[in-house]
C-alpha cells in the first residue's frame, strides 16, 4: 500500500532516498478516477501526459512546498503557488527537452547510468554502493530497478541537454570585477521618514465614500463558498482486533535490519582556511601557514570554538565550527578519513581538501550499533498495527467510494452501511476548512472545489484518515451593497487619503531640499527627525527601514553630482526622502580576491537565463494541447 510505504519513510534512510529520487506517492484515488479525470491530461508534440504522470509531478512539488513552508502552507499560499499549473508545466518542459536531446542524438551510456546511481548516498553501505540496499530501498517504494533507472536515465539526458545549451556561456574578467565592485560599494545616507500615522484624519464626505466604493467594488467581493458532506475513515478506528504475532515481528526485523542500524558517527568542529580551486602554490602555502599557527593555538588548549569563530572562513564560523554529528559518506574523503581516525577530544593535523586547509576536533565518537530485537519489538508491533489499520481503512473506504461514485449518492450509501455522514459549514478556497488540520485542509479544499455538481470526490488521503467528499451547496461570489461594507470602505478611503497627504508632504520636502540644497535645515524647520544609515552595502538591511528594496536601489544610484533621488521612495507604507552623505569604493585587492566567487555566481545566473530563454522558445514552438482545462484552472 502506498500509504504504508509513505509511513515507513519516516526513517532518515528513506527520507534521504526520497530526496535522492524526488518521488512522493500520495493517493488521488486508486482505480477510481471519474472518466473525466482519467487518461489524458495534456499533450506535447504528440506525446500524451497522463494523470498518473501529473499526480507524481504534483506530489513532488507538494512535498517540496510542505518542507519549505511547514504549517504556513495554507490555502492562500496554495492558491498563489498554483501547483497544478506548475506540475503540468514541469512535465511539458521535461518532454520538450527530452525530445530535443533525442533529436540531437544525445544518449546516456550504461557506465554513466551506473555511476550516477552508485553515487547516491541512500544506496551506500559504509560509503560503498550496496546492491541489496538498492533493490530493497526501491522495493519498499513499490518501484523496480528498471523503472527507477529509466527515471535516472531521463534526468541525466536532461542534464546533458542543459550542458549543450549553456556550456558556451562565459563571464569576462571585466564583467566579474564590475560585479564585485557593485557588491562592495558602500553608501552612507541621511534620511527623513514621512508616516501616514502622523496625519490627522480628514473629513470624508458621503459622495467621496460612494465614489471610492464604485471605483473599488471588486475589492469587497465575497468569494465563492461551498459546503460539503464527507465520510471519514480514521486509521485509528481500524486498529481494533488487529493482532501482530511474534513471527511477524521477527520477520519485519530481519527484512528491515538497516532501520535498526545506527552507523558509526562523530560529532566534530572544524576551522577552515579556504582556498579557490585554482589556488596557486603560493596561495596554498600562505593558507597552510595561517592554519598551522591556528593549530598551535588549538593544541595549546585555547578554546576551539572561540578559535573557529575568530579564524575560520567557512560557513560554520558563527557556530564555532560546529558540524554536528555525521556518519561515513557525508563528508569529502580526506576530511572523513581524518575525522574517523581521531578519538574523542583529539585534534587532527592539518587536512587538505578541495575547500582548503582544515583543523578538526572530534568531540564525540559513537560506535555503530544494532538495536536488539527485544528493544525494537514494541515499535515494530506499533508499525505493523498501523500499517494493517491503514490497509483496512483503504480497503473499506475504496469499497464505499466505488458505490458512492456509481450512485452519486453518498448519504444513501452511508445509510446502507450505517456510516455517519459529516458536513462542513460554508468555506472559501482560501479559508481553513473547519474540522481538519491545516495541511489536511489544503487537500480537502482543493479536492472540494474541483467537484462538479453532485460528483463524489476520489479517495482523499489525509494525515491520519481517508475521506470521500460530495458538494451539497454552493454560494457564488458576489459584490455586497455599500451599506453592508460601508465601515470597511470608509476605513480604506481614510487610509488612502492619509497616504496621499503624506506623499504630497514628502514630495514638497524633497523639492525644497533640492532647490535650496538645505536638507538639514528643511528637516529642522519642519520638526522632522534627521536619521543616518551609516555605511552599508547593497545586500544589507537598514534597521530603521526594514525590507526596503526600492530604497536600496535608489540609494546606490546617487552620486556626489546627484545626491538626491529623482522621487520620494515608498517603503513599508512610509515615504522616505534622503540624500547621499558619502560613497566608498572597495580596494582593488578586495575585488581581485572575490573575482572567482563572483565569476561563478554570475556564470550560474547567465546560464540559468540562457537556458530559461531557450526552453521558453522551445515551448512556444511546441504543439501543446490541454485535454482537461477545467481541471487545471486554479
Mean pLDDT: 87
CATH superfamily of the largest domain: Porin chaperone SurA, peptide-binding domain
Unreliable spans: 1-38
Q: Which structural class matches the secondary elements?
A: alpha+beta
CATH structural class of the largest domain:
Mainly Alpha
- Give the count of structural domains: 4
Helix content: 40-55%
Q: What's the CATH topology label of the largest domain?
A: Triger factor/SurA peptide-binding fold
Largest sheet: 5 strands, antiparallel
Structure commentary:
The structure is a single chain. The protein has 634 residues and is of the alpha+beta class. The protein folds into 4 domains: 2-169 and 618-632, Porin chaperone SurA, peptide-binding domain (Triger factor/SurA peptide-binding fold, Orthogonal Bundle); 186-221 and 484-584, Chitinase A, domain 3, CATH 3.10.50; 225-254 and 382-475, Chitinase A, domain 3 (Roll); 264-367, Chitinase A, domain 3, CATH 3.10.50.40. Helices cover 49% and strands 17% of the residues. The chain has 22 helices and 20 strands. Strands 6, 13, 14, 15 and 16 form a 5-stranded antiparallel β-sheet that branches. Strands 17-5-19-18 form a 4-stranded antiparallel β-sheet. It has a 4-stranded antiparallel β-sheet with strand order 9-8-11-10, with helices on both faces. Strand 1 and strand 2 (47-50) form a beta hairpin. Helix 3 (51-69) crosses helix 5, helix 5 packs across helix 8 and helix 6 packs across helix 8.
Amino acid at each position: 500500500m502506498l500509504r504504508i510505504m509513505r509511513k515507513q519513510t519516516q526513517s532518515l534512510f528513506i527520507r534521504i532516498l526520497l530526496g535522492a529520487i524526488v518521488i512522493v506517492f500520495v493517493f488521488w484515488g486508486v482505480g477510481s478516477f471519474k472518466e473525466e479525470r482519467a487518461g489524458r491530461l495534456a499533450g506535447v508534440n504528440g506525446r500524451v501526459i497522463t494523470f498518473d504522470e501529473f499526480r507524481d509531478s504534483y506530489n513532488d512539488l507538494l512535498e517540496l512546498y510542505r518542507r519549505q513552508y511547514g504549517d504556513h502552507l495554507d490555502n492562500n499560499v496554495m492558491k498563489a503557488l498554483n501547483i497544478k499549473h506548475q506540475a503540468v508545466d514541469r512535465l511539458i518542459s521535461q518532454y520538450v527537452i527530452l525530445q530535443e536531446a533525442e533529436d540531437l542524438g544525445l544518449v546516456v551510456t550504461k557506465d554513466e547510468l551506473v555511476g550516477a546511481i552508485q553515487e547516491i548516498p541512500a544506496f551506500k553501505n559504509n560509503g560503498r554502493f550496496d546492491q541489496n540496499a538498492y533493490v530493497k530501498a526501491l522495493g519498499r517504494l513499490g518501484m523496480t530497478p528498471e523503472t527507477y533507472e529509466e527515471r535516472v536515465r531521463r534526468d541525466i539526458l536532461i542534464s546533458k541537454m542543459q550542458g549543450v545549451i549553456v556550456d558556451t556561456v562565459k563571464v569576462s574578467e571585466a564583467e566579474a570585477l564590475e560585479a564585485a565592485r557593485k557588491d562592495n560599494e558602500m553608501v552612507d545616507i541621511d534620511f527623513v521618514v514621512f508616516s501616514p500615522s502622523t496625519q490627522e484624519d480628514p473629513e470624508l464626505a458621503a459622495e467621496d465614500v460612494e465614489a471610492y466604493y464604485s471605483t473599488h467594488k471588486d475589492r469587497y467581493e465575497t468569494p465563492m463558498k461551498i459546503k460539503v458532506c464527507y465520510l471519514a475513515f480514521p486509521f485509528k478506528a481500524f486498529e481494533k482486533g488487529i493482532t501482530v504475532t511474534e513471527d511477524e515481528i521477527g520477520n519485519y526485523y530481519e527484512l528491515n535490519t538497516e532501520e535498526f542500524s545506527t552507523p558509526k558517527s562523530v560529532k566534530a568542529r572544524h576551522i577552515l582556511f579556504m582556498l579557490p580551486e585554482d589556488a596557486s602554490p603560493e596561495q596554498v602555502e600562505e593558507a597552510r601557514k595561517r592554519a598551522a599557527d591556528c593549530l598551535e593555538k588549538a593544541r595549546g588548549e585555547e578554546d576551539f570554538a572561540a578559535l573557529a569563530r575568530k579564524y575560520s572562513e567557512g560557513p560554520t564560523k558563527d557556530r564555532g565550527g560546529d558540524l554536528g554529528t555525521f556518519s561515513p559518506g557525508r563528508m569529502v574523503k580526506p576530511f572523513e578519513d581524518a575525522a574517523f581516525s581521531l578519538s574523542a577530544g583529539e585534534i587532527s593535523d592539518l587536512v587538505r581538501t578541495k575547500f582548503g586547509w582544515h583543523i578538526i576536533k572530534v568531540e564525540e565518537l559513537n560506535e555503530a550499533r544494532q538495536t536488539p530485537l527485544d528493544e525494537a519489538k514494541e515499535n515494530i508491533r506499533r508499525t505493523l498495527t498501523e500499517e494493517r489499520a491503514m490497509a483496512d481503512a483503504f480497503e473499506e473506504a475504496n469499497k464505499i467510494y466505488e458505490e458512492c461514485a456509481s450512485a452519486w449518492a453518498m448519504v444513501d450509501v452511508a445509510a446502507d452501511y450505517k456510516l455517519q455522514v459529516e458536513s462542513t459549514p460554508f468555506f472559501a478556497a482560501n479559508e481553513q476548512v473547519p474540522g481538519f488540520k491545516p495541511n489536511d485542509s489544503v487537500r480537502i479544499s482543493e479536492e472540494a472545489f474541483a467537484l462538479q455538481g453532485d460528483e463524489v470526490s476520489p479517495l482523499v488521503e489525509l494525515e491520519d484518515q481517508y475521506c470521500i467528499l460530495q458538494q451539497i451547496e454552493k454560494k457564488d461570489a458576489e459584490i455586497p451593497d455599500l451599506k453592508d461594507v460601508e465601515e470597511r470602505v470608509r476605513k480604506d478611503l481614510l487610509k488612502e487619503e492619509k497616504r496621499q497627504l503624506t506623499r504630497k508632504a514628502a514630495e514638497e520636502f524633497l523639492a525644497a531640499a533640492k532647490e535650496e540644497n538645505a536638507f538639514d535645515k528643511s528637516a529642522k524647520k519642519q520638526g522632522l527627525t534627521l536619521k543616518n544609515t551609516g555605511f552599508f552595502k547593497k545586500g544589507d538591511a537598514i534597521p530603521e527601514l526594514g525590507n526596503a528594496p526600492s530604497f536600496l536601489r535608489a540609494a546606490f544610484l546617487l552620486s556626489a553630482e546627484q545626491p538626491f533621488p529623482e522621487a520620494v521612495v515608498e517603503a513599508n507604507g512610509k515615504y522616505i526622502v534622503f540624500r547621499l552623505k558619502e560613497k566608498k569604493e572597495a580596494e582593488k585587492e578586495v575585488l581581485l580576491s572575490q573575482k572567482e566567487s563572483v565569476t561563478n555566481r554570475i556564470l550560474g545566473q547567465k546560464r540559468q537565463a540562457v537556458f530559461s530563454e531557450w526552453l521558453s522558445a522551445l515551448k512556444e514552438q511546441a504543439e501543446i494541447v490541454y485535454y482537461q482545462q477545467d481541471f487545471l484552472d486554479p
